[in-house]
């Protein structure tokens, strides 16, 4: 039963984070990038702190390990990731396809960091092939033009790559600390700390509140990103991080573009192309390679036949 709950939460997270790219694009038309990210986590942090006060007996970190976990989350998962991502995506030379491919490098980067910090979570050679195949699927799904990816916008793309690296490293280090701090409390204080860091960065960049335009679209984008993508999304993320580990949970980067494509078809009448279908198949094949052991175990449970031990 636990595995089905994990799968359900994983799909919800992919759907929420996939659709969040549309909200980010909409909001950046009305907010300075880093200030937009900071306000997003001001709201999300307050919401999560209220939830932590209600749902846990530990609304405040108590020892060095717990504050270390909060600091990792605030600096890497919240502040550095979002500041670099939002700044990079504002550059007109960076296409959505290029940004999606760079961000989807996070699972590959996570594997590299896990090899250094979490030896027990190392992938086999076949698993690494599966991750690369999933990355190729994301590129195909995005109908990526390699010449467009490499032409111009080098610095913004490097910023987005830095964002992916920050998130991957934060995922691994958060799991390495392994404190007893409740997920909701850790998330709340990481968001609040990350928001404060981004406010400082925003001021240093000369961003001002006077550049904010409030209307129905900008408020809707901010609300969706703050509540659904941030508060709820990260609550699911950290729960799955404890269950699945840093490598597997960051595979959400491969699944989120699928939900983005489905949302485009459902709400914007965008008809999936042959490239989209090919991307789906490649991503699915990558997951089959990565989860081949779990799939064998599931088939054994359903059929009652023998299968090799899960990887």
UniProtKB/TrEMBL annotation:
Domain of life per record: Archaea
GO cellular component annotations of the record: membrane
Compartment list: Membrane
Residues spanning the membrane: 38-55, 67-88, 94-116, 123-142, 154-174, 186-206, 218-237, 249-268, 274-290
Positions of the EamA domain: 9-142, 158-290
Keywords: Membrane, Plasmid, Transmembrane, Transmembrane helix
SUPFAM superfamilies in UniProt: Multidrug resistance efflux transporter EmrE
Entries under Pfam families matching the protein: EamA (PF00892)
Topology in membrane: Multi-pass membrane protein
Predominant subcellular localization, coarse grouping: membrane
Protein name from the UniProt record: EamA family transporter
